From TrEMBL:
UniProt-recorded name of the protein: Fibronectin-binding protein (FBP)
InterPro entries, alphabetized: EF-G-binding_C, EF-G-binding_N, EF-G_N_sf
One Pfam family cited in the UniProt record for this chain: EF-G-binding_N
Sequence ranges assigned to domain Elongation factor G-binding protein N-terminal in this UniProt record: 5-86
Organism: Weissella cibaria
Domain Elongation factor G-binding protein C-terminal treble-clef zinc-finger: 102-192
Length: 214
């Protein structure tokens, strides 16, 4: 089976199904429903690769949007098209965080790698957050202090409102003294939730550019 969908595209399709579900549940006007449905079909079509599963999915879209059971079954099928985030060994992770002496391991068994554009995990003991994200076709490691205080705010990575905390990372200053400056970003406390609502790569890319020590 060809892997033709990226995790953020999978998330984007799920978002479209939610939009359609809301329209079916809250709009009475038949014409309005039809407009929303046509719009959702167009968007999903632009994301989905042209395969049998995709055609199947589009044909069933109205049922998928109204039945949770149908939706779960359809998403399971679609997941087969997704290139999951790679499960990195401790050795591979170590190479991405060379300056970290005792790198805590992410709990891979709790992660849904089909909905993972980046890897993020917290070490509550040391109040740190570790992030592995794609950049120019490679993976890069970013880490920093993660404030234990939860706040309501906009996440710099997924750009959704939710429970966020201040992530403070060292960024090499361009100054002549070579000193480090720190950059703060509010990001989701739970990186799994963040990934599950990450349907565009734009904000993640700028987060990586501004926090990566280059
Ligand atoms: Zn987020």
């Amino acid at each position: 089976m060809d892997k033709q969908l990226q995790p953020h595209e999978f998330v984007a399709i799920k978002e479209q199904v939610i939009i359609l579900n809301k329209a079916f549940n809250s709009v009475n006007d038949k014409n309005v429903k039809a407009v929303v449905q046509a719009d959702v079909v167009e968007t999903v079509k632009s994301i989905l690769p042209d395969t049998e599963i995709a055609t199947d999915f589009l044909n069933q879209l109205p049922e998928i949007a109204t039945s949770r059971q149908r939706a779960e079954r359809a998403f399971k099928q679609l997941a087969e098209l997704v290139t999951p985030f790679p499960e990195l060994s401790a050795n591979q992770l170590g190479k991405l965080f060379k300056k970290v002496k005792k790198l805590p391991e992410p709990k891979w068994e709790n992660l849904d790698r089909h909905e993972m554009t980046y890897l993020g995990w917290n070490d509550n003991g040391s109040q740190k957050k570790y992030i592995v994200a794609p950049r120019d076709g490679k993976l890069v490691g970013i880490y920093g202090d993660f404030d234990p205080k939860p706040l309501n705010g906009l996440c710099a990575i997924c750009h959704q409102l939710g429970t966020v905390s201040m992530f403070l990372s060292k960024v090499k200053s361009r100054g002549a003294d070579g000193n480090y400056t720190k950059r703060g970003n509010l990001i989701c406390r739970d990186s799994s939730l963040c990934n599950a609502q990450l349907s565009s790569l734009d904000h993640l890319a700028s987060f990586v550019e501004t926090t990566l020590v280059k």
